[in-house]
Amino acid sequence: MNLSSDRSAKPTVLVADDSALMRRVLVDVLGGGEADAGEFRVVATARDGLDAIRKVHQYKPDVVTLDLEMPHLDGLGAIGYIMSESPRPIVIVSAHAGPGTQAAIRALELGAVEIVAKPPPPPDGFGHPRAALEALAPQLIAAVRRALAVDVSHVNVLARPPAPVVHPPELARRGRAVLAVGVAASTGGPRALADVVPRLPTGRGAAVLIVQHMPPKFTRSLAERLDSMSPLRVVEADDGAPIVADTAYVAPGDYHMRVRTAPDGPVIALDQSAPLWGVRPAADPLFRSIAEVYGARCVGVVLTGMGRDGAGGLRAIHDAGGTGLAQDRETAVIPGMPVAAVQAGGVDAVLPLGQIADRVATELARRRVPER
Question: Strand locations in the chain, DSSP E?
Fold first, then answer.
C-alpha cells in the first residue's frame, strides 16, 4: 500500500503487521479512513519485518508502528536493523498477554519507545473483531504523538541482555523499609529504569516504588525483567503488600499506587480512581503519599517522559525534607517530565541518567537509620 500521493504536512507513519485486518484498522485509525481526516499520514504498510525495513528506507516515515510476531523477520529483528540503519521512533503494537509481553519489554531495550496493547484474542480463536481493534484508537494516537516528540539520538540501545542476577537468600528475610525511593518514568522509561534500578544499593533499609506509564500486563513483564537484572528484588505491586527493604515495587498498569500507614508499617495501596494527567498509574499520587508517610526519609526521581506527571509530587517530597532528582535534557528521550519537575521547584539536582543511581545511594546513606 502506498499513500504517498497525499503530500500534506502531516506526520508520516509506516504500519507493519502481518494481519491484513490489523493493517487496515491501523491505517483507518491513524489516517482518518478514506477521508484522510486523521492527524497522521500513513505512507505505507508492511506485512513482515523485511518489508518494513525496505519501506523505512523507501518512505522515511516519521514513526513506525510495529507488530512483534511476523514471518520472515520478526519485530525484534526489524527494530535492530531500523535503529542501526535509519533510526526513528518505533511504537510496538503487540498482544498484551503471554509471551508477547516479554518480547515487548525486549523491544523497548532495543530502541522502541512506546507500547500499545492489542486486545486479547477472542475465545473462538478466529481473530479480533474490527470493533475491538478500533477501540485501540485513543491509546494508539496518544502513543504516536509521544513518539513524535522523541529525540532518537537519546535512545540508547541495550544490544545484549545482561546476565541474570541471582538474589541472595537473605533478601527474602528483609524487614520493613525505613527509607523510600519513588521513581516516575514514561516514554523511554523502561530503558532508563534498566540503567538505574540494577545499580541501586541494597542493605540501606530502603524500598523503591516505581510508576512507569505502561498498559496493563506489560508492567508485570517489566518487573520480571528488572528483577532478573538487579540485586534488588523487583515485583509488580499487590494491594496491601508490606513495603519491605531491598525490594522495588512496580505499579500495575491501570492502577494508581500509593503508600499508606498500617499497624505493622507502611503497605501498598492500589486503586482505580480517575486517571491523572491522562494516565493511570500516575506518579503524583505515589510521590505525595511517600512524602506523607516517609517525610524526610525519602528520595524522589523523575525520569524521561512527556507531560508533567511527577512534578507536583516531587515538590511534596522536597517540601517534606526529602531529596528530588531529575534526569537532564541531554540524556532524556523526552525531557518534558523532568523539566516540569524543575519548574515546580521540587528538584535538588539535575543529573545525567548514568549518575542518578549513585546520587540516590548517597542520599540513602545520608538518611540511613542506625540499627538497634
Answer: 12-16, 41-46, 63-66, 90-95, 114-118, 179-185, 206-212, 233-236, 247-250, 256-260, 267-271, 298-302, 323-327, 349-351
C-beta separation of 212 from 219 below 8 A:
yes
How many whole angstroms separate alpha carbon 260 and alpha carbon 149? 36
d(CA 66, CA 83): 13
Torsion of the alpha carbons at 355, 360, 362 and 364, rounded to the nearest 10? -170
Q: Which residue has the cell 512527556?
A: 306
Residues 6+ apart with CB under 8 A from 355: none
Contacts of 189 (CB under 8 A, 6+ apart): 212, 213, 214, 303, 304, 305
Sign of the dihedral through C-alpha 70, 54, 93, 208: positive
The helices-and-strands tally (H runs, E runs) of the chain is 12, 14
Q: What is the pLDDT of residues 310-321, one digit of tens each?
A: 999 999 999 999
Contacts of 4 (CB under 8 A, 6+ apart): 43, 44, 59
First to last CA, the chain: 70
Number of CB atoms found within 10 A of residue 293's CB: 19
Q: Which grid coordinates are listed for 174?
A: 528483609
Give the cell for residue 160.
545484549
Cβ neighbours, 10 Å, residue 366: 9
Pairing mode, strands 206-212 and 247-250: parallel
Tally the C-alpha atoms within 13 A of residue 9's C-alpha that lie toward its C-beta: 0
Note the Cα 3 to chain centre separation in Å: 32
Q: Find the mean pLDDT for residues 270-294.
A: 97
Residues with active-site annotation: 186, 213, 309
Closest CA to 250 of 287, 294, 281: 281
pLDDT tens digit sequence for 47-86 = 999 999 999 999 999 999 999 999 999 999 999 999 999 9
